[in-house]
Specification:
Elements (H helix, E strand, L loop, with lengths): L1 E8 L2 E8 L17 E3 L8 E9 L3 E8 L4 E7 L6 E6 L4 E4 L6 E4 L14 E5 L4 E9 L4 E10 L1
Length: 155
């Protein structure tokens, strides 16, 4: 159902219609979600990569890497003074899943201990439990967005 809102604007009336039948998600349309990922590019003869970028609220920045069972994953996250970027890493076998309320695609699957979706850990050191393609996702939890720099090393 549409309702008419009358808003005063510098001595005149501005008329606009707004639909209240459907709640809009708190996320601008068209942002990358967890269905979009990029392979981490390690330089030749190295096992470490640095990713630095800015994301806006609701955007996912997802990166994949292939590793073997028993390798060690070390990762650090610096998200500056805002402290609003969250890091999660999912084991091989993850799948995109649509949130029925927001319509945004996230991931389902088993995450690494301490790197669950939405945790505020800024670094992790863990032995990888299985071989295959892992995915690391970063997103914001509050504010307008955030800038981050993350270092990932596989040994």
């Amino acid at each position: 159902m549409d309702k008419l809102l009358l808003l005063p604007l510098i001595g005149c009336l501005l008329c606009t219609t707004t639909s209240f039948a459907q709640e809009a998600p708190d996320r601008p349309p068209g942002l990358p979600d967890a269905r979009v990922s990029y392979p981490i590019q390690f330089k030749p003869h190295t096992s470490q990569a640095t990713i630095e970028r800015t994301i806006i609220r609701g955007e996912y920045a997802c990166y994949t890497f292939i590793a073997r069972k028993g390798q060690r994953l070390d990762t650090t996250l610096d998200d500056g003074p805002e402290q609003n970027v969250y890091l999660s890493v999912f084991e091989p076998g993850y799948k995109p899943a649509r949130n029925e309320i927001t319509g945004v695609y996230g991931l389902t699957g088993k995450s690494l201990p301490g790197l669950d979706d939405g945790t505020e850990e800024k670094e992790a050191h863990t032995i990888l439990p299985t071989s295959g393609k892992y995915i690391m996702c970063l997103t914001t939890g509050r504010g307008a967005g955030g800038h981050f720099k993350t270092v990932i090393q596989i040994r």
